[in-house]
Amino acid sequence: MTADQSDSVEYRWPRPPQDGYTVDDLFTLPNLPSRTELIDGSLVFAHPRRRNFHTDVMDVLVGGLRSDLPAAFKVKREMTVVLDERNAPEPDIIVVEAESVGGPDQTRYRARDVLLAVEVVSPDSESRDRTTKPQKYAAAGIPNFWRVERGGNGSEPVVHVYELDPLTRAYVHVGMQRDQLKVTKPYATDIDLGAVREL
Hints:
The chain is α+β, with helices and mostly antiparallel strands. The protein is built from 4 helices and 12 strands.
């Protein structure tokens, strides 16, 4: 096939089902881009390129979470969490029950196995990271949520810490932390957010 012929081949996007996609579709449709999420029955494609801020914050948080990690938990990054049949987002970081880890070929976790979901806000996903996903994580019963934003100077993280109110099934904002992230839930951890400057 010549270059001219390959350029003329038209890619055919799958036609969405009338009631939207399901989790089964997300894991069986061929040729979906990596980091495809399912939100309200729609496929959402994440931007393929990360910014330094995003990856550096993830590295610091994952390292900090793992340094204090009880044996009963595991920390995972960029894994699909099945909330219900029509919602399967991919948080940047999750803390899960260790017994839910099924081996090297596992591709998803159930909401009931997740103790903490973390979203580092990106320009291409601001609305989803700030409103859509937290609302869905709370409705699915995930007990803790952290939203990470850029601070005033644009290079240091600010972590908004939320805990689930079991009566309303909504998150309650319990703190905003800048230089040092010190929490007791889902377990006690103390993370130096200033380490992001050193990466």
